[in-house]
From TrEMBL:
It holds the Pfam family GFO_IDH_MocA. This is Dehydrogenase. Belongs to the Gfo/Idh/MocA family. Residues 137-339 form the Gfo/Idh/MocA-like oxidoreductase C-terminal domain. GO terms for molecular function: nucleotide binding; oxidoreductase activity. Keywords: Oxidoreductase. Residues 1-123 form the Gfo/Idh/MocA-like oxidoreductase N-terminal domain.
Length: 346
């Protein structure tokens, strides 16, 4: 297969290496808003004797005879590129989100539906071994009646200040992964949320900082009520200096399990004889979820070949975004928000 990849930043460069080494990919066509960056990535791939070329503009990817397109560019470009691929009859893998608002997301989904093409969204936790095992255990009933879910996402350091106004905020950019994982692992929908967040920069707590200026928060907590009454919480922070931490705990009336607890989880017990600080913690999401990223791209190639059904279509991105939108409304208005208040529901 010949695959087009648009966006050669951190995640796009990672995807290019995975795709370039995949046995079903013959060649890549790379593009980026900064053409020299795409050219440099293509050159590195060719140095490994992998088939890769770069083009000057993303539009040229669609005229390069590709069989499918992977979108890892800036968020603001996603919806337009998805529509362009759909009109060209090309299946698309796109990093989340489709757009930063419900209306833009729905327009892109309508173009995909009208064209009859496939759109797979990059919620990589669905391809993580631990999250997959948790989903199977919940579905099998071995936990009994599920009553509590706790999700944690913690970045070791915040992104560059210039990224914050473009990110959509902590709920849409970061916690959206937890919202999708909660829906996927439990098999339930979210009925209601209550969200809080903190914007004072802990580095300069007495000054207006970059989070306040961007209208964002760096630490947030959400209580979610699922449609069967299960209580879920999701917390996130940009300031977890101990390391990158993504976990989920699920408790039923018969048993409880955890995802993401291993010898690199940045936790230390204060109990006598408890686990000590790991010698090496997870530095970031690429290291923690590298196998999951590889599995999701392998699934996309199978989807392109018609071997499997879409494992994570665009409606999943819409539902996770609706939860994030409800959280933003809840934080602003300091109240519980029902998902029914957010447009775009099924």
């Amino acid at each position: 297969m010949r695959i087009g990849l648009i966006g050669t930043g951190r995640i796009g460069t990672f995807h290019s290496a995975v795709l370039g080494r995949h046995p079903d990919v013959d060649s890549l066509v790379l593009a980026d808003a900064v053409p020299v960056r795409a050219a440099a990535v293509a050159e590195r791939l060719r140095a490994e004797r992998l088939g890769a070329e770069s083009v000057a503009e993303p539009e040229e990817v669609f005229a390069a005879g590709v069989d499918a397109v992977v979108i890892a560019s800036a968020t603001a470009s996603h919806a337009e590129l998805i529509g362009r691929a759909a009109r060209g009859g090309l299946p698309v893998f796109c990093e989340k989100p489709i757009a930063l608002d419900v209306a833009g997301t729905e327009r892109a989904l309508a173009e995909v539906a009208a064209a009859g093409t496939e759109l797979q969204i990059g919620f990589m936790r669905r391809f993580d071994t631990g999250f997959g095992a948790a989903r199977l255990m919940v579905g099998s009933g071995v936990l009994g009646t599920l009553h509590t879910v706790r999700a944690v996402t913690a970045d070791p350091a915040p992104p560059p200040a210039g990224y914050l106004p473009l990110s959509g905020g902590l709920y849409r950019d970061c916690l959206v992964h937890d919202f999708d994982a909660i829906r996927w692992v439990t098999g339930r929908e979210v009925d209601e949320v209550y969200a809080v967040g903190e914007s004072r920069d802990p580095r300069t707590p007495h000054e207006a900082g970059v989070f306040e200026e961007a209208g964002d928060v760096h630490t947030a907590g959400v209580v979610l009520t699922l449609d069967d009454g299960t209580v879920a919480t999701a917390t996130a922070t940009r300031f977890n200096g101990a390391g990158y931490d993504v976990r989920m705990e699920l408790a039923g009336h018969l048993d409880q399990i955890t995802v993401g607890l291993d010898d690199r989880t940045p936790l230390v017990s204060v109990e006598p004889g408890g686990p000590e600080r790991p010698a090496r913690t997870w530095p970031g999401f690429l290291e923690r979820f590298a196998p999951a990223y590889e599995r999701e791209l392998d699934a996309f190639l199978k989807l392109v070949r018609g071997e499997i059904a879409n494992p994570c279509d665009g409606r999943e991105a819409l539902e996770a975004l609706r939860i994030a939108e409800a959280c933003e409304l809840s934080r602003r208005e300091r109240r519980r928000v029902a998902l029914a208040e957010i447009p775009g529901g099924a």
